[in-house]
Amino acid sequence: MTQRDDNSIENKLTSIKYNCSKNTHLRVNQEMCRNCQKRPCCYICPAKVYSWDDTQSKLNVEYENCLECGACKVVCPFKSIDWEYPNASCGVILKNS
Ligand code: SF4
Ligand code: SF4
Fold this sequence. Notes:
Number of domains: 1
Mean pLDDT: 90
Helix content: 10-25%
Bound molecules: iron/sulfur cluster
Radius of gyration: 15 Å
Order of helices and strands: HEEHHEEHEE
Low-confidence stretches: none
Structural class: alpha+beta
Strand content: 15-25%
Shape: globular
CATH topology: Alpha-Beta Plaits
């Protein structure tokens, strides 16, 4: 039998509630992203907000899942991410312990 890991990131993410904004608070420069070799944003984000779309040659940004930790902004080597907090009363609204 497989035991549930209560400390897994997947489990922690289920305890977070969001009030999604209609507008993104994460804008990227797609030209810079096309030329980015390692795309660290796709690996550092705990909520898997970023993913590279090879077919369309663009970075997908699922801003609705953002935990507002700021890690992507720090690791982006080209300062491609225009990062701001979601609009008032939007974004992460409750974190259960
Ligand atoms: S790390 Fe920065 S430049 Fe590279 S893909 Fe991510 S957002 Fe784009
Ligand atoms: S701020 Fe954190 S959770 Fe939000 S997109 Fe960046 S790395 Fe992901």
